[in-house]
Amino acid sequence: MDFPNFIDPQALYDLANSQSYNYWIGLGVQVILSTLVGGIVLLVLVEIFSHHFGESVKPANAFLVALIGNVLTFFGVMGLLISFISWVPFAHLIISLGIWIVLIKGFFGEMSFTHAVMVGVIFFVLSLVLVPYITGMIMGFVPSF
Predict the structure, then answer these.
(1) pLDDT, tens digit, for every residue of 98-142?
(2) Is residue 35 a contact partner of residue 61, using CB atoms and an 8 Å limit?
């Protein structure tokens, strides 16, 4: 598979038409469910940290952080970022962890940097293990197209 030229509109059109509509609907459902599950997990984690350390944060931003993280993951942005530094060992893990930490610090600015790093690392691990597991269980109840 060749790397698509994203400047050429015809290449984007060909890339979008290379999959059936079932694929795009399934991907959309997956993004929505993963955002809901990830947002709830992040909401619980941020609430625990904010109550334990006495910081006041806006928990409504948890779903926005989960949505942005899912869009970056599901729609190939991570692949583009990693292609630039593919020579670095564990580049995917480093970039993913860095993106979660930056998103959490950016949307929960009231948190100290140390707490944002701790929440970012814990949520990164949970997003690798717990969120796909719960999302997969819920996807079993969603009718296939």
Answers:
(1) 889 999 999 988 888 999 999 999 999 999 899 889 988 988 888
(2) no
Q: Indicate whether 3 belongs to any domain.
A: no
What does 80-131 look like in DSSP terms, one character per residue?
HHHHHTTTSTTHHHHHHHHHHHHHHHHH-TTS-HHHHHHHHHHHHHHHHHHH
Residues 6+ apart with CB under 8 A from 48: none
In a domain? residue 57: yes
| 92 falls within a domain | yes
pLDDT at 96 (0 to 100): 86
* Distance from C-alpha of 16 to C-alpha of 3, rounded to nearest angstrom: 14
Higher-confidence residue of 8 and 121: namely 121
* Parent domain of 14: 9-139
Residue type at 18 in one-letter notation: S
